[in-house]
Amino acid sequence: MDAIMNITLGITIAGILNTIYLSYHSIKGTLVYCLFFPKEWCEKVQKSRYSKTFGMPNPYLGFLMLLSILVLLLLYDESIVPLWYAMALINFGFLFSLYFLYIQAFIIKAYCTWCVVSALVFISLFILQFFL
């Protein structure tokens, strides 16, 4: 595997860990620790109606998407699993991340540290896919 693929896998794993942290707090009904932003901002985002998509908490969807990307990248072989499968999910996640950043900035008017981290993961994956 080349260096870019290793970096991509590492960022994907970091994103999975982030979604596990967010999912844990979603399951427990507790608030996440808010770094860099006022703690009430994280609470505002976490308790907003935008914290779920189609009735499912966003961290669960992020976990499933990143886990799928990880599996597809690990199975990558043009003859069996083409790279564009993972790239399609990366692009979808990237667009969703931009949408949720927009929601935080202009509708909720508050940011959640860990949601921003999730967006940075997908932005990074989006950029890296052009070098795979």
TrEMBL record:
Per the database record, which ranges form the Vitamin K epoxide reductase domain? 1-131
CC annotations in GO: membrane
Q: Which InterPro entries match?
A: VKOR, VKOR/LTO1, VKOR_sf
Q: Which PANTHER family match?
A: VITAMIN K EPOXIDE REDUCTASE DOMAIN-CONTAINING PROTEIN, VKC DOMAIN-CONTAINING PROTEIN
Q: Name one Pfam family in it.
A: VKOR
Entry keyword set: Disulfide bond, Membrane, Oxidoreductase, Quinone, Redox-active center, Transmembrane, Transmembrane helix
The entry's family comment says: Belongs to the VKOR family.
Spans traversing the lipid bilayer: 59-76, 82-103, 110-131
Superkingdom of the source species: Bacteria
**By what name is this protein known?**
Vitamin K epoxide reductase domain-containing protein
Instruction: List the Gene Ontology MF annotations in alphabetical order.
Output: oxidoreductase activity; quinone binding
Where does this one sit in the cell? Membrane
Per UniProt, what is the membrane topology?
Multi-pass membrane protein
Any signal peptide, and if so, which residues? none
Q: What is its main location?
A: membrane
